Amino acid sequence: MRRFGRTLVTAALAVAVVGGTAGWASGESQAAVTGPPPGTAGWRAGTASGRALPDPATATPHEVARFFAGLDEAARRQLLRDHPLVVGNLEGAPLPLRYEANRIAIAATGEARYASLAAPDRQILAFDPRGRGQVAEVFGDLEHTEHVSVIVPGSDNDATAYDARRKPSTGPAGMARALREATGGFTAVVAWIGYTTPVGVGLDAADGRLATAGATRLARFTDGLDAVGAPDPVLFCHSYGSVVCGLAARHTDASDIVAFGSPGMRADTAAGLRTGARVWAARGPSDWIADVPNVEFAGIGHGADPTSAAFGARRVPAADVQGHTGYFTPGTQSLAAFAAIANGEAR
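Now predict its structure.
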């Protein structure tokens, strides 16, 4: 009975502290945005060159890629004009077409909070205005690169908060910029906020509901990269984002999965992720995530500590990392190690 009581206390503590960048804030429940993008009904009713359009809900990214390969430029551009929100989020569609489609879709919202995303120099690979908004942005030349990295963030990130310029190298876009610079520009980096993240620290951050929905979307996103000929990606998974990556691991073709500031990956060991990717883990000495109990009880908590010897991940040096979000700070051991992994140089 005493052991059961201790378990309940530990689970309750997990509810109180598991989360992302917000620290000890309270959380609020979020409704996961799932399924195909808005405008799908109109898309399904359309045709191109006399052919039915691939269903965004059921067609694989490779089927989408083959469909677009069979269209001439005029037909592609007609779809772009008629269905920008669908084309911009359609995994397997040509990358330049998606960038242009999302500029149109973002401008069409008329919302000031999204205006900067429509700038001509930004490469927005996905944009969904539902809920708090989801976005994926490319830094570098994704079409011709030999290496691709994807930043998968944790709590409190959405289409407006992911690129907080006041916090360089800590938000997802800042992490992406810092990583690309550290690689010498040899790696294209995607800041991927393609799922509904928890807000603050509450039950959403302590359970796996949002991570499960996010894992499905992440797996499809990586399949979309493969469909357009991009290299197998390295996934850099921060905080609650590492829960997403843990659940998605066996469904992706990632070459490496890096968990940092992680509350757990919903697996007891790296082998338990059932992935062919190399698994890495990092945690700085002052990261408050160390105070999160590594338990999973009645769906609460995310399991084993990925930095523990028993988990079996490769360790990333992080002795000079400050806090929960300092892993991409220029000059840190962790960023240097991340760059080596991203460039395929780490062994």
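The beta strands are 47-48, 51-52, 123-128, 134-139, 147-152, 187-193, 233-238, 256-260, 278-282, 314-315.
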